[in-house]
Amino acid sequence: KIQFIKAREVFDSRGNPTVEVDVHLTDGSWGRASVPSGASTGDKEAVELRDGGKRLKGQGVLTAVKNVNTEIDSLLADQSPFDQARVDALMIEADGTANKERLGANAILGVSMAVARAAANSLNIPLYRYLGGVDLELPLPFFNVINGGKHADSGIDVQEFLITPIGASNFRIGLEMVADTYHTLKKMLKDKGLETAVGDEGGFAPRLKSTEEALSLLVEAIETAGYEPGKDIAIAMDPAASEFSSDGVYNFEGKKLTSDQMISYYQEIVGKYPIISIEDGLSEHDWDGFKKLTEVLGDRIQLVGDDIFVTNPEIFQEGIDKGIANSILIKLNQIGTVSESIAAIKMARKNNYTTMISHRSGETGDTFIADFAVAMNAGQIKTGSIARSERVEKYNQFLRIEEELGNSAKMAHFDVK
Ligand code: PGA
Ligand code: ZN
What we know:
By secondary structure, the protein is α/β, with parallel strands linked by helices. The chain has helices at about 60-75, 85-95, 105-125, 125-130, 170-190, 210-225, 260-270, 285-295, 315-320, 330-335, 340-350, 370-375, 390-405; strands at about 1-10, 15-25, 30-35, 140-145, 160-165, 235-240, 245, 250, 255, 275-280, 300-305, 325-330, 355-360, 380. Helix 1 packs across helix 3. The radius of gyration is 21 Å and the shape is globular. It binds 2-phosphoglycolic acid and zinc ion. InterPro entries: Enolase, Enolase-like_C_sf, Enolase-like_N, Enolase_C, Enolase_CS, Enolase_N. Keywords: Cytoplasm, Glycolysis, Lyase, Magnesium, Metal-binding, Secreted. It is found in: Cytoplasm; Secreted; Cell surface. Catalyzes the reversible conversion of 2-phosphoglycerate (2-PG) into phosphoenolpyruvate (PEP). It is essential for the degradation of carbohydrates via glycolysis.
C-alpha cells in the first residue's frame, strides 16, 4: 500500500524549477520520478502549475509540490500502488478540471510515474517489465542533431533535424552509427567555421541559412561517416510549425507561405532528401491543412501529430476521425498521467497510427520514458541528441535494457514507405 508521498522542487536541464516526487510504500520500498517541461508547447496541453510572483521569475512549483504533499498524499494513502488506473483516476477526479489546472499536471504526473516506479521496486522487477511484461521490443531512436526554432538561437525555423539508424540490427549498433555521424557532423561544422555549441536538446545550433542547408549537411555527415543515407540512417524533422505560424500564415524562411505552399515545400524536400518522418509540419490550428498534408504525403512518409493531438485521447480521436496524420507523439506531461498516455497509445494501435515516445526540451535525469517506450512496444522514441546527460542517460538506459533482455532483445522495425 501507499504509505506517504513526498514531493520537492528540483531543477531541470534549462535551470527551471520542476517537481520531483517520492512515493513510499508500507513494505518499505519506494519510487521516485521527476517531471519534464516543454518550450514549444501545444495550446491544449494539460496545465503545468507555476507559482507566479517574483520568486524564480514566477516559474516556481511550490504550489504543485504542496498539492502533492497535502491533498494527493491524503487522497492516495492506503491505495494499492499496483492499481495504476485507479490511482490516476482518483487524481483526475480530485482535480476536477478538464486540463488538470487545479492540482497541476506536473503534480499529478510526478505522482503517477513515481507510483509505477514504487510498484516495480516493490516487486523487485525493472520498470519496463512491470509496465510491459514479456515480449518486449526496443524502439527505433530518433536523435535530434541540429536544433532550431525555440530550442536554439540558430536562426533556423525548423525546430528539430533528427537522424535515425533504420538499418541497425540492434540498439547498441544504432547508437554507434549515430555517434559516428554526430562526431563527423561536428567536425564538418568546425571545418566550415560554423558553431558547434549545442541547443536545448543536445543538437548543434549552427547559424544556417535554410532548412535545405541543414538537410544537405546531414546527408553529407551520414555519407562521410560511412553510412548510406536512407538505407542505414534516415532523416526526420519536427518543424513545430505552430511556432512560426499566425493567423493561417506560415512565416517561413523570410517568406509568408500558405498552408498549400508549405505542403508543396514538404513534397519537394521529401523528394530530394531521405526524409522518412515529419512531425507538426503544419500548425495545431490548421486541421484542414494537416488533413491535406496527410492525403498528399501520408502514404510516402510518417506524419506525426504532436501539438495538434497533445497526447490527449479525446483530441486524438477527433484527429483520427478527420484523417489527420498517421502517427502520434506521446509526451506524458502533455496529458498528465501514465494511464491516459497508455490509452492514447492503445488508440493509436487500434487505428494503425505509429507511436513515438518523446522527451521535452526541458528534461531531468529521469529515464522513465526509456522504460515506458520498451514496455509499450512503442516502436519509436526521440529523446535528443547524443550529448547532454539528461538526453544521453535515456539512450544509455536502452543499452542496459538490451543487455538485460539478452537474446530476446529485438529492435522495432521502421517500414520505409
Ligand atoms: P518541447 O519540444 O518539449 O519544447 O515542446 C519538443 C517537441 O516539439 O517535440
Ligand atoms: Zn514536436
